[in-house]
Amino acid sequence: MSSTPTSTDYSSLSNINFTGGFPTSADLAPSIVFLVIYAFAIPLLLFRWFRRSDRTTLLIRPTIFLVCRIGMLVIRAYMSKNTYGEGLLIAELVLVSIGFLFLIEPVIGCWKLQIDSDMSQEDRPRWVKRLATLLKLTLLAAIITAIVGSSMISQALGSDYYMSVVKSLRHASSVLSFCTVVIAALAAILTSVKFSLDKRGTIFILSTAGCLIVVAVYRMVQNFTTDHDAPVNSRVAFWVLQMVFELFAFLLILGISIPTWFPGDAGRLSRNNTVSAPDVEAYQMRDGQGQPKNY
């Protein structure tokens, strides 16, 4: 974005399209609105953690996301009305860059659990586990490049070389995150069609992934755009295409009981009595080993 802080000279950074740009007074109101929304989401997240039937390690990443977003919004609200230094700017840039990346892993995890829930171990294609692992590694690379790129801002202030490195790392992070979430969505579609998986789970995965794809596309286009006055660099684009859609994805993840929707191998029959006794017997007979077949 084209706006720059008046209190500190960061004009040398103007050729980098920072997601969200330099905070100004116009950011105060939306920062407070989103801060209130995320504050109201805390009880729901705690409820998911403390309720045994909802608890899952897949909630770790959304929890980190919530901490990142609350921290970023507090910092951004402060920066919009006060002078700030290099350290605060870097902290805000890191939190903006990595926040939404933590919402991608639950999508990958739910897709993997959907396979485990709907198919017996011997029927599962081996490429699913390999692809899930590859996507998680790619996502980790996106997080690392985003953190390193933002943390090198101080060196970039006085060096064309480091400025180029920062831009390259940011570009790499945006491309990696885009590829990860798009491939995860395509994989969910493929497995759902090919193996006739639970449609409810597929709709959830694709809805969440769809919101994250909007964010990923926005970030990638915004990072590669050279025109600082382009619409994608506007303040409205940031608050709508990133902040709103990642909020939708976050609320979708919190809105369901992940272990109930995606019980995996061990928990399918503990869906709060959603599977009837005749269903259990039918699947036991299908499996032929006295164990209900995951479907």
From TrEMBL:
<feature type="transmembrane region" description="Helical">
    <location>
        <begin position="59"/>
        <end position="78"/>
    </location>
</feature>
<protein>
    <recommendedName>
        <fullName>DUF7702 domain-containing protein</fullName>
    </recommendedName>
</protein>
<feature type="transmembrane region" description="Helical">
    <location>
        <begin position="90"/>
        <end position="113"/>
    </location>
</feature>
<feature type="transmembrane region" description="Helical">
    <location>
        <begin position="173"/>
        <end position="191"/>
    </location>
</feature>
<keyword id="KW-1133">Transmembrane helix</keyword>
<keyword id="KW-0472">Membrane</keyword>
<dbReference type="Pfam" id="PF24800">
    <property type="entry name" value="DUF7702"/>
</dbReference>
<feature type="transmembrane region" description="Helical">
    <location>
        <begin position="28"/>
        <end position="47"/>
    </location>
</feature>
<feature type="transmembrane region" description="Helical">
    <location>
        <begin position="236"/>
        <end position="262"/>
    </location>
</feature>
<feature type="transmembrane region" description="Helical">
    <location>
        <begin position="203"/>
        <end position="221"/>
    </location>
</feature>
<dbReference type="InterPro" id="IPR056119">
    <property type="entry name" value="DUF7702"/>
</dbReference>
<feature type="domain" description="DUF7702">
    <location>
        <begin position="31"/>
        <end position="256"/>
    </location>
</feature>
<keyword id="KW-0812">Transmembrane</keyword>
<feature type="transmembrane region" description="Helical">
    <location>
        <begin position="134"/>
        <end position="153"/>
    </location>
</feature>
